Amino acid sequence: MAVRRNTWQREAVREALERSEGFISAQALHTELHRTGSPIGLATVYRALADLSTEGEADSLQSPEGEAIYRSCATMDHHHHLICRQCGTTAEIEATEVEAWASRVAAEHGFTEARHVVDIFGLCADCTAAAARA
Amino acid sequence: MAVRRNTWQREAVREALERSEGFISAQALHTELHRTGSPIGLATVYRALADLSTEGEADSLQSPEGEAIYRSCATMDHHHHLICRQCGTTAEIEATEVEAWASRVAAEHGFTEARHVVDIFGLCADCTAAAARA
DNA sequence: GCCGTGTTGAGAATGGTTATCATTACTGAT
DNA sequence: ATCAGTAATGATAACCATTCTCAACACGGC
Ligand SMILES: [Mn+2]
Ligand SMILES: [Mn+2]
Ligand SMILES: [Zn+2]
Ligand SMILES: [Zn+2]
């Protein structure tokens, strides 16, 4: 029995996500899909993104505004993000020192099964320049 | 000219927040206030928490479920949290090395006005012990 | 081609948060 | 203490992201 059927919708979401630059919300991705002619439903975009995230094909995190945002994973390895809060451009960053720090701090306090949230939000070079002009 | 008036509502929120153990949502704090006899309005709780957060008297962060949660700050200094995802117990932690790392990484990528989200979620010593027993 | 059932999507429902706006009540001035 | 000006409050509606519902649909094994 098939546990998962293949539909153009799933593939459309995967491709649209890969095509987009940085982190993007489900709503924004849905808008983008419609803009390029796809009649996909909003609920389906939500479902596909949740699946991609579960399968590890996409990163997801909560924006400071409380919106869930997604990004196609370049690498499956553990990593963190530097995100422009203006345009969404994202850089995947290594954080070796932080990894060590996190596990040390957790251990010092007797915590186990520790996971960390480490992300940096700022204005990218382009958006900084644009802001300076205005 | 008074820029900020003193009301029992603000103080009630501040005190209720200090009284609560770990991070708590605006809704939960409102319920708690009503439970203890305060007729404060929900909107006011939201406003007071937002103010406390702005003034640095309270920390706020997005729970993994996307709810904004708050905690009374023991120290006004910049710090981060080690949070038990089982019981909510929280420890405030210093992250000197991480501060340096964050600003260095942001600068290296041309980012400005960088803010970081650095939190560790795990199981506290007690919850770890409880889990081991079961 | 058929059938069984996983998938879709329009719209309703949910739930957290914010906006309205008439009313209330601080506060500085008189 | 009284008053006036206005910031703060709160019941409620509005907002908005996300999830749910369920009838219609379409994969895919046969
Ligand atoms: Mn890490
Ligand atoms: Mn920091
Ligand atoms: Zn940018
Ligand atoms: Zn615990």
Automatic annotation (TrEMBL), chains A, B:
Its main location: cytoplasm. Keywords: Cytoplasm, DNA-binding, Iron, Metal-binding, Repressor, Transcription, Transcription regulation, Zinc. One of its GO terms (cellular component) is cytosol. Binds 1 zinc ion per subunit. Binds 1 Mn(2+) or Fe(2+) ion per subunit. Zn(2+) binds at C84, C87, C124, C127. Pfam families: FUR (PF01475). Fe cation binds at H78, E99, H116. It is found in: Cytoplasm. InterPro entries: FUR, Fur_C, WH-like_DNA-bd_sf, WH_DNA-bd_sf. Its cofactor is Zn(2+); Mn(2+); Fe(2+). GO terms for molecular function: DNA-binding transcription factor activity; transcription cis-regulatory region binding; zinc ion binding. One of its GO terms (biological process) is negative regulation of DNA-templated transcription. Homodimer. Belongs to the Fur family. This is Transcriptional repressor. It comes from Mycetocola lacteus. The lineage of its organism: Bacteria, Bacillati, Actinomycetota, Actinomycetes, Micrococcales.
